[in-house]
Write a structure and sequence with these properties.
single chain; alpha/beta; GMP Synthetase, Chain A, domain 3; eight-stranded mixed sheet; 12 helices; 32% helix; disordered N terminus
């Protein structure tokens, strides 16, 4: 069944928590095609779904073919409720309700990802969700009570008066005694010991907020399958763009071993290539190429993030691959000893006169320079013939022939 591209984009969603309050979320979906499975991302303590790292990781997972729900916990971001009335157990309940919403509207979650205290929360929530096959935690405390150390200067006041205003990341939050009491009753080692889920732990050795010994404690408490990835050089909030994208990419690749990844359905109209770009991503573009999820970008020198090949890189890459495949097919048919072929392609803008083409002295043309290397017991005549055949590959003929491109606006309303 073909899937409408209108269904495949970032969209606002909302669902109710256990108290009936509306929680605000975002669905991140692949550029095209039905997600092979679904995931939930849980943000860090007092953060929101719009933290740059949360967005980066969710979108990197979407590029891996996941549909990802990121949402604000009760009382945070755009969600209803008072943060002062929440606690860690409430976060776990929010995750369970998020899973119910996801199952009802899209598909049951197979992957949970949590950052910092959100990491501890997904460990507890996963134990209650049979559909979850894999869990990844980033900078997670081995015990939720670790958060109370961040409140150390206010803990005495909280114990004495029942609450205190705590300033975190430049914002004030009212923390009540019930929040601390709830943290003290939760231990991750008792949860992961009989987990029954694949577990990935990502942590930075330089994390100054949650020490890496927390990752060690979680790892030791868990049974296999379990894995650890060092986010060397990253800070706790993964503020560096590249660190968050790396984490998302690793999680997506790792999780593919534990979740079902059926073939991606083609988009409506049978398009072989789809590009999807959100305003906040600048030039970083999610791509779907005949069932494969990729990313394109512009170099940093051009104002991009340099997080993927440029559009022209893809054109050059397609030309190089087509030449290599065509040459290999021809050599196999002729039973010639072509053991290996390498095709290097560079793209630039050249003066038409340099390319022996008619035109004015300042006219320029796209030029693809191809360098072909062959290995094998081949005569000079065979090598030259293979080169000639490579220059007749479909991609080469498309680029040098008459090409017609038709563009039309598609009504999304």
């Amino acid at each position: 069944m073909a899937v409408s591209l209108e269904q495949m984009k970032t969209r606002k969603v909302s669902f109710k928590n256990a108290a009936g309050q509306l929680l605000s979320g975002r669905m991140e979906l692949p550029a095209a095609g039905q997600p092979h499975s679904y995931a939930i991302f849980a943000h860090c303590f007092t953060c929101s779904k719009n933290l740059r790292a949360a967005v980066d990781i969710s979108r990197e997972l979407a590029r891996s073919g996941f549909g990802v729900l990121r949402f604000d916990f009760t009382g945070l971001g755009a969600s209803e409720g008072e943060f002062s009335d929440t606690n860690f157990s409430g976060n776990v309940e929010d995750l369970v309700e998020a899973a119910k919403f996801l199952e009802a509207e899209y598909g049951a979650p197979a992957l949970l990802v949590g950052h910092s205290l959100g990491g501890a929360a997904v460990l507890f929530a996963a134990a209650r969700l049979p559909s979850v096959k894999a869990v990844a935690v980033i900078g997670a405390p081995s015990d939720p009570e670790h958060v109370s150390r961040l409140l150390q200067s206010s803990e005495e006041e909280i114990e004495r008066t029942g609450s205190a205003t705590v300033h975190l990341e430049g914002r004030g939050f009212i923390i009540k005694k019930q929040f601390l009491d709830d943290l003290r009753n939760k231990r991750t080692d008792s949860v992961v010991k009989d987990f029954g889920k694949a577990l990935l732990i990502l942590h930075s050795p330089q994390d100054a907020t949650v020490d890496i010994t927390n990752a060690e404690a979680i790892y030791k408490a868990a049974h296999h399958p379990k894995s650890f990835i060092s986010l060397d050089g990253a800070d706790h909030l993964l503020t560096r763009h590249a660190d968050a994208l790396y984490a998302g990419r690793i999680i997506g690749q790792w999780a593919s071993r534990y979740v079902d990844t059926p073939a991606t359905e083609e988009p409506e109209g049978g398009a072989g290539a789809v590009a999807s770009l959100s305003a906040e991503d600048k030039y970083t573009t999610s791509m779907w190429l005949d069932g494969h999820h990729l990313v394109a970008d512009e170099p940093e020198a051009m104002g991009g993030g340099g997080l993927g090949p440029s559009p022209y890189d893809y054109v050059a890459g397609g030309l190089a691959a087509c030449k290599a495949i065509t040459a290999r097919l021809y050599a196999r048919r002729k039973q010639w000893d072509l053991q290996h072929i390498t095709v290097e392609v560079d793209h630039d803008k050249a003066h038409i006169g340099d390319c022996a083409q008619p035109g004015g002295p300042t006219a320029r043309i796209d030029r693809f320079r191809c360098r072909v290397r062959m290995e094998g017991d081949l005569t000079p005549e065979q090598r030259q013939r293979i080169l000639e055949i490579a220059d007749r590959c479909p991609a080469h003929r498309t680029l040098v022939g008459g090409v017609k491109i038709q563009s039309e606006l598609v009504d999304r309303a």
